[in-house]
Design goal:
about 425 residues, alpha/beta, abc type-2 transporter like fold, 2 domains, 5 strands, about 5% strand, rod-shaped
């Protein structure tokens, strides 16, 4: 065991002496994390439209007219949905709010002056209060725009007046004397509207004598947010940055084995009382320790500076261990890819970049097309990111972590066994 520790310490000293390699192993991943986290955090600027789900349960002319006005709002991007889907998507944080027009909405808009006012139901994400306030303001504006259109169109108002007079007698909110006065007013209004060619604008609308009149009502439906997504962009960027550090470490250790073979260092080590298993064990131990140090150092910076809050520290550490085992095996496999340092470095990084591209190391997996997500199962980087994301923001349980961890450990063991079997101890 002492020989293995000595070999590992030797490789760690060599890594620290290589300043360029040390920079790309420890500091480049941190730059990657901060840069892409900052870029993605600015992806939803204030000029972007608010995506709102709309549920039309009334499906009347009145509800369709209201939604037509609402879709013209430049601040909103409207998407039709069912109530259950809308509630679920807002609960999961996929949309900030939904707007529902219940049964009877259109009829209530026609009555306007008596009976129950038209009701708009809204479900808001409690974590996005600023957008919720803006949406309520837009809904009120849209309702008043519809009332303005009614009062600006004499023919439509005459038609509405006839409808109101027909509904007046059945109203329970007015007594007989009030009904008679309102009927007289509506009759006079019809005569007046027929006598003018057009009313082009309505400057103001008073409610004198109608202190209890409600033109519309907005009711809030409580939504309990179910957080399953990343709390900030750094929770997505840091696992990717960690992967780049791990990739650099595995490649560097794999190339170091090639260098030691080509320069005869392994021959001199074999002349010492050290077995081949101890030599490879020392190299694997140093690589494992370095990868684990990179993971822990970067996630510590993410936690204390960039407010990353892992859902489970225990599962995150388990994921880190499995990622380290996986890339130790990949390191061993890379050491047999080429006979020279240049060949091993070229082939190693070429394979790493391909695995990163299809595995989510460059673009987050949930941004990738579905066909590429299916192909990504062949990349160990995909499983590494899944293990880290699962412990940081996907809220994985232990049973859900078993699959990515098993794939990582299994791949690492197989790659190490193949690499150790094919490894050449001399350059002859």
């Amino acid at each position: 065991m002492r020989e293995v520790v000595t070999m590992a310490a030797k490789d760690l000293k060599l890594l620290l002496r290589d300043r360029v390699g040390f920079f790309f192993t420890f500091f480049f991943p941190l730059i990657y994390c901060v840069f892409f986290g900052t870029v993605f955090s600015g992806g939803s600027g204030g000029s972007a439209k608010i995506k709102v789900l709309v549920v039309d349960e009334d499906e009347s002319d009145g509800s369709r007219s209201f939604l037509a006005h609402l879709e013209k709002a430049q601040e909103l991007q409207i998407e039709r949905s069912s109530r259950d889907q809308a509630l679920d998507r807002v609960r999961r944080g996929d949309r900030p709010a939904f707007v529902a027009l219940p049964k009877g909405f259109g009829e209530a808009r026609v009555r306007m002056f008596w009976g129950e006012p038209p009701t708009i139901e809204t479900g808001m994400d409690p974590a996005r209060q600023a957008e919720a306030g803006m949406i309520q303001g837009i809904l009120a504006r849209t309702m008043f725009e519809g009332m303005r259109d009614t009062f600006s169109n004499p023919l439509l108002l005459v038609e509405r007046s006839r409808h109101w007079r027909g509904e007046l007698q059945g109203s329970a909110n007015l007594n007989a004397d009030e009904k008679q006065r309102v009927d007289g007013f509506l009759s006079s209004l019809e005569v007046f509207l027929r006598a003018i060619p057009i009313i082009s604008d309505v400057r103001s609308a008073g409610t004198s004598g109608g202190a209890h009149w409600e033109p519309f009502r907005i009711e809030s439906i409580p939504v309990v947010r179910e957080r399953k997504g990343p709390k900030n962009s750094y929770e997505v960027a840091f696992p990717q940055g960690i992967i780049w550090g791990v990739m650099g470490c595995a490649t560097a250790f794999g190339i170091s084995l090639v260098i030691e073979r080509t320069k005869g260092t392994l021959i001199r080590l074999r002349m010492a009382p050290i077995s081949r298993v101890q030599i490879l064990g020392g190299k694997a131990g140093a690589c494992f320790a370095t990868i684990l140090a990179i993971e822990l150092a970067l996630i510590t910076i993410g936690i204390f500076i960039f407010r990353i809050r892992p859902s489970s520290f225990g599962l995150l550490f388990l994921g880190f261990l499995c990622v380290a085992v996986n890339f130790v095996g990949i390191m061993m496999l890379f050491s047999v890819l080429g006979k020279t340092e240049q060949a091993a470095a070229g082939l190693g990084w070429a394979i790493m970049l391909i695995m990163a591209m299809i595995g989510g190391g460059m673009i987050p997996q949930f941004f990738m097309p579905s066909w590429l997500q299916r192909i990504s199962v062949i990349s160990p980087i995909r499983w590494s990111l899944q293990a880290m994301d699962g412990a940081i923001w996907r809220q994985y349980t232990l049973s859900e972590m078993l699959l990515p961890c098993a794939v990582l450990v299994g791949t690492g063991v197989i790659c190490f066994a193949i690499g150790a079997k094919a490894f050449q101890w001399t350059d002859a």
